[in-house]
Amino acid sequence: MTPRLFLVGRMWHYRLSAGGRRQQRSTGETVRRRAEAVAAQAAEDARRAASGLEPIPTLRELVRQWIAAHEFVVSASHLKGMREFGRLHLYELAELKIDVFSTSLVEAARAQHLRGHAPATANHWLRLLRLLFRWAVRRRLIAEVSWTVKPIKTQKRPRAILPAARALDWLAAVDQEGGPAVSCGIRLMLGLGLRESEVRTARWEWIDWERRTYTPGRTKGREAVPVPLPDWLATYLEPRRSAAGLIVANRRGAPLYAGFASRVIKAANSAVGIEGLTPHRLRGTFATMLSEAGVPVQTIQQVMRHKSVLTTIGYLEVDLGRAVAGQQRIANRLGFEQQSTEVRNGEA
Q1: For residues 248-261, average pLDDT
Q2: Strand partners, 11
Q3: What is the pTM of this model?
Q4: What residues contact 176, with CB distance under 8 A and at least 6 apart?
């Protein structure tokens, strides 16, 4: 099945036989070295077709195939991220067959991404690319991932959580900035740790008022785990209680639009002087406050509906209040507190 090259004018063409059929096509190249590469790829595609195997896709084609295969089985946010990756971030890799990828090619594309994006987004870009290639391996399109690129080490920054002392003022600002449906949805995020997509599909019939639990019927990981319904949230929901239907909806009774909470949360942050709080960080607030209340991380993992406890740990922020209290106890044991008192009283 070795292709034979020949010139037609200045353009190189190839001829090969596969499965008893002869193929003859233009390579579209005038340079022999490039034409040989095109012809070799055509021969490989013909060999795979003759063996009943799928042709090797380009990266752009692989993205399309992944989206088509996962459109109804992954979350809307995951799907949106992959679509954006395929539309904006393939760079020079887009039209390359996935079996010719190398470490140097991927590193060059990542460097191009870094010219306009932060290092943390480059790591996310790399995760999506690796996910696609591992999926290609499972489909036996390629034998293995042919490149190895390590994530960039980035400085981890503290992420925002809602300070308990300003929670009531913040919720009051939410009520002032948003309508009743948005205010209710934001309280579901804070009180139950729901994702925004889970709030948009939340239903009254999923609340067990007798046991005071809420069991999400539509979740990112398809889990159905009861979450305790706190008294303050139950009291808030009681006047709005219905036998069935969406808990939060627009005036036409339809689900709220994706991203419904972002503007209101941003405005509430400005009103009370909080920076960086987002809809997803309300979920982080929920997890962190459970941890601060002494709830074991395995229990938090269950109500957060995480498959790995490491994912749960990633949501938890350091409880500096406990650290301060611990430092104070250590100071007392070492006698530093008595010394500080003497200095303050002018006895030193």
Answers
A1: 92
A2: 8
A3: 0.64
A4: 271
Greatest Cα pair distance, the chain, in angstroms, is 103
For 242: left if phi > 0, alpha if psi spans -120 to 50, otherwise beta; the answer is beta
Q: If you average pLDDT over residues 78-95, what whole number do you get?
A: 94
CB–CB of 220/182 below 8 Å? no
For residue 343, name the pLDDT band (cuts at 50, 70, 90): very low
Q: Is the pLDDT of residue 344 over 60?
A: no
The CATH number of domain 164-285, selected from 1.10.443.10, 3.20.20.140, 3.30.499.10, 3.40.50.1000:
1.10.443.10
> H or E stretch including 25?
strand 21-29
Q: Which residues pair with 26 in a beta bridge?
A: 13
Residue 32 is given by DSSP the state: H
Q: Is 130 exposed, middle or buried (0-12, 13-18, 19+ CB in 10 A)?
A: middle
Q: Cα(102)–Cα(260) distance, rounded to whole angstroms?
A: 42
Give the pLDDT confidence score for residue 348 in this predicted structure: 47
What six digits make up the tokens of 98? 């996935």
What pLDDT does residue 221 have?
53
Could you please report the per-residue DSSP string of 242-311? -SSSBSS--TTSPPPPTTTTHHHHHHHHHHHT--S--HHHHHHHHHHHHHHTT--HHHHHHHHT-SSHHH
Q: How far apart are CA 322 and CA 326, in angstroms?
A: 6
Lowest mean pLDDT, pick from 120-124, 156-160, 199-203: 156-160
Return the amino acid letter for 200.
R
- Can you tell me the mean pLDDT for 26-48? 86
On the question of pLDDT at 62 being above 90, the answer is: yes
On whether the CB atoms of residues 32 and 12 are closer than 8 A, the answer is: yes
Q: How much is the average pLDDT of 194-201? A: 91
Interhelix angle for 103-114 vs 119-138, to 10°?
150
Contact 30, 45 (CB under 8 A): no
